[in-house]
Amino acid sequence: MSAPVAIIPRSQNPKGRLQTEPAAVRWLLIAIALAFLTLFLALPLAAVFSQAFEKGLSVYLTALQEPDTLSSIKLTLITAALTVPLNLFFGVTAAWAIAKFSFPGKNLLITLIDLPFSVSPVISGLIYVLIFGLQGWIGPWLQAHDIKIVFAVPGIILATIFVTFPFVARELIPLMEAQGKDEEEAALVLGASGLQTFFRVTLPNIKWGIIYGVILCNARTMGEFGAVSVVSGHIRGMTNTVPLHVEILYNEYNYTAAFAVASLLAFLALITLAVKSVAEWKVRLQLGNE
Amino acid sequence: MKTGFIANLLTAAFLTTSLAQGADITLLNVSYDPTRELYADFNNVFAAYWKGKTGDKVTIRQSHGGSGKQARAVIDGLEADVITLALAYDIDAIATKGQIKPGWQKELPHNSAPYTSTIVFLVRKGNPKKIKNWDDLVKPGVSVITPNPKTSGGARWNYLAAWAFALHQPGGNDAKAKEFVIKLLKNVPVLDSGARGSTNTFVQRGLGDVLLAWENEAFLALNELGPDKFDVVTPSESILAEPPVTVVDRVADKRGTRKVAEEYLKYLYTDEGQKIAAKHYYRPINTKIPTKLAKVKLYTIDKAFGGWQKAQKTHFADGGTFDQIYDVKK
């Protein structure tokens, strides 16, 4: 399988390694990277905030207190509150199974976990319409029992879970594989039960990896547009998540409000980035201490 | 706290349909893009009227999007009590799935279209390219913004309006009309997927010399984004757009909202409803209601193209004239 994502053990990356490239090449590379970052990250971010605050702080705050906006924030929080714990549970279970045991079909499982990364989010949404929609496989049955999946909150949550489920597992698998299973084996030999081993040995070792995965999963959950757009039905004040609401406001020529709501997502991104850096650093420390 | 959260969640998730009993009613109006402001206004007025008449509190929820996309969502189970789309063809699509009774278009007066609209031009202030009529759009160097007729209801009206204009010229026939539309599409630099997308392209991104738009969209853009930046040009003739409305029988019967849903649509035909339509630059069908819109020679789809079913098949189905033209353009 592919190498660990963004986690490089310190031992492979010693600070004082030999520099072979001439200084000019190094500076050129750094300049290109910086220019790229400015153009594609810093400028849009600045644009979001300058547009959001264009008409002043009070307009900004009023825009955020509009009932439809509040309801979209609430829906996004509900979605995250369900999606993230479920994918945390799934991710830890899957990573544990894959990293610590060998069993038939292991590679297939890894491939399946990666599937949502390679499928377009629109398709991810569409499959739920095709299954649960009125013309879909079990749509008529759901309809007869008055259960709403698509064009309602359950559909939004389902689509979000699908899109975000690789995040936790994908972070943990390389970490747990790198750590090996020596410590667990020692614990078991010393008489610990399976659960005790997990909670006392495995979990503390992967703590920062979990946080890293959860924060990425949460960021994607709250920011997901494509899949959610397909299953939402776009009912104002009911099935619009924050990203969908941004689009609606923009389409209504309500640019200040659109950018005000978008700035919430930008804040989320900044916080994510900060927590992610800390987690990455801690993971590296954990691996470095081995 | 926790039970409150779960209760909230359950309510949001499953109980949206069961609010019909008692005095608290919700309706879902699934509509197309340009009616946002119209219905935001109308829903409040209707809610007040209904409260006064019956004592019931009615909350109308809105969903907006491309007309074809919205029809598709209702077909797939979006629980719209009423549907207010850009063209009858899209409602027919829902009817063929058995969710709306056949003959729905005769249920309300005037082919179930309480207001009409037409296609006009939005140009840059002072009209620097001197665009007055349809034939100015095919001149070299004129850049025209219109959405993609495959996905946008409004774009289909634009396309047919241009076609009909060429047809109505002396010596006009289908071959000449096609040639005219080919020339027109050669002047289109970008086809957005929906009417609002095109408006944003023209207005925000500053692309193009002229935007083909719904009359109400053109005036809305003018008012919202600056009368000092744009002018509306009404051509000598244009197409009569009749955006129809109807109750979705499957949903209304299931939720028991038929009565209020029907009254809601009927209220569009009252003087009050017609005034709101006029205020948002739709053309009221009640000619006694004053309107600020310019008089223009309008013709219907039925008269010019033999109805939507036929127009759709000839022009926009796979292999229709739009596909043929787009291949030529490439």
Describe the biggest sheet of chain B?
7 strands, mixed
Q: Work out the helix count of chain B.
A: 14
The level of helicity of chain A is over 70%
Task: Report the mean per-residue pLDDT of chain A as an integer.
Answer: 87
Give the overall form of chain A: globular
The unreliable regions of chain A are 1-14
Distance between the termini of chain B: 61 Å
User: In terms of structural class, how would the helical and strand content of chain B be classed?
Assistant: alpha/beta
Protein topology:
The complex is a heterodimer of chains A (290) and B (330).
Chain A: H1 23-52, H2 57-64, H3 67-100, H4 106-118, H5 121-132, H6 139-144, H7 153-164, H8 166-179, H9 182-189, H10 194-223, H11 226-232, H12 242-251, H13 255-288
Chain B: H1 2-14, E1 24-32, H2 36-54, E2 57-65, H3 67-75, E3 82-84, H4 88-95, E4 115-124, E5 144-145, H5 153-167, H6 174-186, H7 195-203, E6 210-214, H8 215-225, E7 230-233, E8 237-241, E9 245-247, H9 249-255, H10 258-267, H11 271-279, E10 283-284, E11 297-300, H12 301-305, H13 308-316, H14 321-329
Parallel strand pairs in B: 1-2, 1-3, 5-6, 8-11
Antiparallel strand pairs in B: 3-9, 4-6, 4-7, 4-8, 4-10
Helix pairs in contact in B: 2-11, 3-4, 5-6, 6-14
Description:
The complex is a heterodimer of chains A (290) and B (330). Chain A has 290 residues and is mainly alpha-helical. Chain A is built from 13 helices and no strands. The longest helix of chain A is centred in the first third of the chain and has 34 residues, at 67-100. Chain B is built from 14 helices and 11 strands. In chain B, the strands form 2 sheets. In chain B, strands 4, 5, 6, 7, 8, 10 and 11 form a 7-stranded mixed beta sheet that branches. In chain B, strands 2-1-3-9 form a 4-stranded mixed beta sheet. In chain B, helix 5 crosses helix 6 and helix 6 (174-186) packs across helix 14. The longest helix of chain B is centred in the first third of the chain and has 19 residues, at 36-54. Chain B starts with a helix and ends with a helix. The chains are: A mainly alpha (290), B alpha/beta (330). At the A-B interface, helix 3 and helix 12 of A face helix 1, strand 2 and helix 8 of B.
